[in-house]
Amino acid sequence: EAGVAQSPRYKIIEKRQSVAFWCNPISGHATLYWYQQILGQGPKLLIQFQNNGVVDDSQLPKDRFSAERLKGVDSTLKIQPAKLEDSAVYLCASSADSRYNEQFFGPGTRLTVL
Amino acid sequence: RKEVEQDPGPFNVPEGATVAFNCTYSNSASQSFFWYRQDCRKEPKLLMSVYSSGNEDGRFTAQLNRASQYISLLIRDSKLSDSATYLCAVNEGGGFKTIFGAGTRLFVKA
User: Fold this and answer.
1) Is A1 helix (H, G, I), strand (E, B) or coil?
2) A25/B contact by beta carbon, under 8 A
3) Quick check: A102 and B103 CB within 8 A?
4) Which of B12, B36, B56, B110 has minimal Cβ neighbours within 10 Å of its Cβ?
5) Which residue from B49, B94, B97 is facing A45, i.e. has the nearest CB?
């Protein structure tokens, strides 16, 4: 079974530029998550989708971050404009059952904002 | 108080040792609990899920204490390959978000 796919794996941009990340979850997984993980910290949930609806986006900085999950499968996360403090690893995860929430993570995108 | 707190670590143990990590959570309504392992510059990987009082998988045992609101992870007969960061995660159930702790670093030395 293929795992969660993410691209790109690495991205370096300058502040105020925009960037987009892509995620393809495990086939059949209805729930998709985007996390931000800053060095030395645990993953912080940015947004959670159930199929193509948003379940939780309370910690998403909506003035600069946006995410969508069209057709309930792939998802994109965008940052515009980026700030220095957005430098982090952006992890996508999926789960089959939102009730128990066993999540499987993709390899992440390491973003550096200069 | 943080929603999910873990022992700060790092834990430095010799091969063959038994080591235990604790994780406390603040929301008494939390329903499911997880331990993830994260290697350096890699993604977290699910190690164990805990839904009732505990779970055991080989050298790894997780226990849940709802009264005191903590879960623990016990690793017996530590191997060099167990060196990693162990993340505790807590979910309130019903599709609510999962909150991760900051992780505990373990170094197992020969």
Assistant:
1) coil
2) no
3) no
4) B110
5) B97
